[in-house]
Amino acid sequence: MRFRLTPRETSFYDMFSASADNIVTGSKLLMELLGAESSARAEIAERMRAAEHAGDDATHAIFHQLNSSFITPFDREDIYNLASSLDDIMDFMEEAVDLVVLYNVEELPKGVEQQIEVLARAAELTAEAMPHLRTMENLTEYWIEVNRLENQADQIHRKLLAHLFNGKYDAIEVLKLKQIVDVLEEAADAFEHVANTVETIAVKES
């Protein structure tokens, strides 16, 4: 860590942690969706929408703090990128749940549960990592593991696409299910973007 002669605004750390904790809430709602009856999905989607709105509020709070702070804990661009990437994760998870409800999907294809399990694990790791931004210590394993999880998510996504195009589903159903699994893949990518941003920050601050 570089020695600093100037004070730093520390509330960013708490806000990043709050944003990441909210993502864990979203990942648990995704898990809940897997085992839910069709009749219960609309209520889960409503709770996910509320979590997504909470995520938006957390992101706006970070941006407001960024715009009003003279001293920041690390580069302003990195703060913006980290907040935006955390927000993207929540947006993608909420979109996936919403699509399941809007498309009235009766049964999700085999393999979606693996996608969601990867997202849930990435969410836990991200929430655990955010407090370490204060010291920039014990973060290397975090971004290595999230990158590994994203590679795993890519493999699951490709297998899901192969399954969807094997002729079992009609064309309209394929379009619906493909959009859902694609959005879940985008969520996995967004977790990697967060991890890569954290790595960038850690390198700059070392």
From TrEMBL:
InterPro entries: PhoU-like_sf (IPR038078), Put_Phosphate_transp_reg (IPR018445), UPF0111_domain (IPR052912)
Gene3D superfamilies: Phosphate transport system protein phou homolog 2, domain 2 (1.20.58.220)
Source taxon at top rank: Bacteria
Family note: Belongs to the UPF0111 family.
Protein name as catalogued: DUF47 family protein
Native species: Streptomyces gobitricini
